[in-house]
Design brief:
41% helix; 359 residues; 8-stranded mixed β-sheet; Rossmann fold; 15 helices
Length: 359
Amino acid sequence: MRSRDVKIRAESNSSAGQERQGMENFETQEVAITEDEAALYDRQIRLWGLDAQQRMRNATVVVVNLKGLGTEIIKNIVLAGIGKLIVVDENNVTEEDLGAGFFFTEEDVGKNRAESSRLRIQNLNPRVIVETVTNFETLHGTELEKLVESADLVCVTDRGTEWIIPLNEECARQKKKFYCGATYGLSGFIFCDLSVHQFLTKDKTRPGEEPKDIKATMTYPTFSHALQHSWENLSKRQTKELNPATVFTVMAILEWQTRHQGQLPDGLSTADELEVLANTLLKDRDVNSQIIQSIPRHQIESAAITAAHELSPVCAVVGGFLAQDILKALSAKDPPLANFFTFDGTTGGATVCRLGVPR
């Protein structure tokens, strides 16, 4: 699969009508924001403009799998004022879900996660339409096609490549925006494929002048293509800044899930295999050996011990960042993520890697 090109073209607009003129190629919005909504979202409208809020108001978002990360995402995008949320989850609430899943109570244990959360999600913002799907069969065949067709953006959380890749491929086929993410104990990741994405950004190429809005176009690769991206052309400084130890530990966990029917490493007994996977990926992607020759053993052991467990602070950080980027993509205001984010909870640091997205 070829990586698509990134094209940015400056189209200067004049004054107050900059955004509307610059976004003329975007879909016409069907539902207008009422005066009450304008008052409710006043701070957001001041931040990114009425037209951007309008696009969010008309957006339908599908979130697949409602664990701690999905809970954080939903909270943020519903409060921000999307139009419609579809939650897909056939699993029942467990006692473990009560830790990071603040939509659930003890009375919900044994009940469907999507249905148990629906009323509490709705109460966050009654203006948002909330629908639930309680059968994962919807994610296959013609039902998946219909689900993606009905959405503007699909986000799958805390699932392996056997879920991510087919959902991403269907979104790519229909040119719909796609996000995925997961937390693994102290670490986590976010990936996005926004197909061909247009957005407004500020032209900062003319120092001393007031930045004007320009229209930019960025084209993204799919998940399966991005993970094959080589690091051989990165300088020592660029390689070091991307914190490859965390990036390839996360990729190794994804590979582990692929080889173990979706299960996560869980304990020191899994560290040796996880280490082999991580170091193999490190070598295969031509990472500069002068910066890192192998993943530190202590990082592998930490991942092996914690990966199968949800930690609320990590869910909050990764979920907050993912939700923010979803809103950025829906509003078409400012550059979104490009395109692979990793978080290391042991240091509190995060990096964004451009995997298959040209500069």
